[in-house]
Amino acid sequence: MVSIDQFEELFGRLSNDADFSRHVVGILVESGSQLQNGLKGFSPDKKFPQAEFAPYRSGSFEWNPTGSGLMWKAYNFPVFLLSNSSTSALQEIALRNEKRKKSYTVDVADFNLVMQTTKSGTRDSESCLREQTCLPLGGYSVWSALPPIAISSSEKAKPVILIVASMDTASFFRDKSIGADSPISGLISLLAVVDALSRADGVKGLDKQLVFAVFTGEAWGYLGSRRFLLELDQHSDAVSGLDLALIETVLEIGSVGKGFAQDDKTFFAHSTSETATNGMLSAIQDALGSLNNQSIKVSRASKSNPGLPPSSLMSFLKKNPKTSGVVLEDFDTAFTNKFYHSHLDDLLNINSSAIVAAASVVARSLYILASDKKEIKTSALNTININASLVEELLGCLLSCEPGLSCELVNRYIAPSASCPSHYVGVVLGEPSSQPYPGNVGDVPRFVWNFLADKTAIPSKNMSSACPKGCSGTGEVCVKAETDGKGVCVISTTRYVPAYSTRLKYESDTWGVLPHNSSDTMGEADPVWTESNWETIKLRVYTVQDTRFDTWVLLLGITVTVLSYIITAMAKAFITKALKRD
Fold first, then answer.
1. Local structure of residue 181 (DSSP, 8 states)
2. Tens digits of per-residue pLDDT, 63-103?
3. CB atoms < 10 A from the CB of 126, how many?
4. Model pTM score
C-alpha cells in the first residue's frame, strides 16, 4: 500500500527494475482529503497531452510541467485507489500485520479483477471488437441553438458563433475521473452562459446564430469534436439545421476554475491567429468594460507559445487551418492545474468566483459579437448577468457525491442512475443514433441535453400534449420526461451527436475498424480506444495462516501418519502372533 506522494517514485522503479516488477501482484493507493496541500503536483498524463493530434509540431513543449505520462504505460498488475474508509481500514490491518510478525496468521488482500477478453488473439481493438469482447470508448455529445433554428424557414441562414466545452476527463483511476478544473469548470461556465443569455433581452433579434456544443471523448483523441465535424460533412440527422460553412468563429471555454491570483481574476485568450480573431478579442474587451469590474482581466496568450493548448479547437483547426477561434483558459504558457487528469482535480482545486467571472465575460462577449457591430445599449448588456447560485449548485451536482447527481437541479430534469458523478467517457452502448435510447446515454450527457433544451427553448403550442408522443410539431422535443414520465413539449434545436472514433463503423450489430484515411490526419494518430467487458471489480481482505505455520502443520501431519503406520504395523504383528499362539 502506497501513498500518492510515493506513487511516481514507485512506478519509476517498476519501469526500470524488471526483477522487482515481477514480484508485484497488485498495488493499493491511499486516498485522503489532505493530499493536495502536501503535493507539488501530480499529473499522470504527458507533459504535452495528446501532442500527436496537435496542428503543429512541437512535441517537446511542456503545457503540463507536472506530467509523468504514467497513465499511458502498460502494467501487468492491477492498481486500486482506496476510498477514505478503506484506506483507514487497511492501514489498521497493515499495522496489525507488523505487530504479529511472530504470529501464525496474517491478513492479505485478494484482487478479484476479471476481464472477459480471454479469447486467443484478442490483443488489440480490431480483434476484440470482432470477437465482441470489448466496446469502443465514446458516448454522446450535445449541441443546442439559441434561439432555436427554424429549419423550414425560407429566411437566409445566419452566420454561426459556436461555443464549445468538454464534459469528459481522464485519470489513472477509471472510476475516479472528476476533472474539476479540466474541463468541468468550462462546462459549468458554458451552462451558466446559456442560462444568462436565455433571460437576456433581444436574443431572438441577434444578427448571428449562437450554437453551444458540449463534447465528450475529448480526453481520448478528441473523439467528440472529430465525430461532430464528420457528421457535419455527412449532413446527418444529428446535426440537422447546422452547416459547417456557416460557422464563422469558435469560442472554447477551457479550464477556468483557477483563473484567480489573490483578488484578481485573470484569464488568457489563446487564438488561432491574431487577424482572424480580432473581432472576438475586441468583443471580450468591450464586455470587460461593461462589467465595471477592474479585478477581471483577459490577456492575449504569449506569442512564445507554439500554438493552441490541448483543446477541441485543434480538431477544427486540423479540419480547416483558416478557422477563426479562441480558447479561454486560466493559464498562459503552462497549466496552472497541477493535478491535470488526476483524481486530485476535484472540488477543492477550483474557485467558483473564477467560473462566474469567466462566464460573465463570455456571455456579454457573445451578445456583442452576435450583434454584428451594432451599437448596443448599456441597458441591454446589463440584463446579462450570471446566476452565481446556479454555478454553486452545478459545482455540488457535478463535482461531489453529496448531493451529487441527487441534487434538486439534476432531478428536475432526469432520474440519475447514481449519485456520484463520473466524467469518464465510458463506452458506446447499442447502435449510435441521434435519438438514442436514454439507457444508453450517461447521466451527465442526459442532464446537459435536458438543461440546454429547456434553457434555449421557446414555448410550444402543444404544451398540454402527452410527451414525448405528443411532440409532433416542427422542432418540438420533450424535456424532463424522466422525472414524472410525462415531460413537457417545447420547441428547441437541441440534439445528441454520437461520439466515437472516426475510424469505426457500426454495421449489422457489430463494430468494425476502418482502414486509415489519408485525408483524415487526426484519424491516422487515432489508436481506436476500446474497453474490455468487465465483471464486477472487487477487493477483499481476509486472514490466512503464515506459510511457516503451514509447513510445521504439514511436517507434524507427516510425522503422525508415519507413527500411526508404524504403530498399526506393530499392533498387527503382535495380534497375529498372539492368535497363532492360541
1. I
2. 999 999 999 998 888 888 887 777 777 777 777 766 666 55
3. 16
4. 0.89
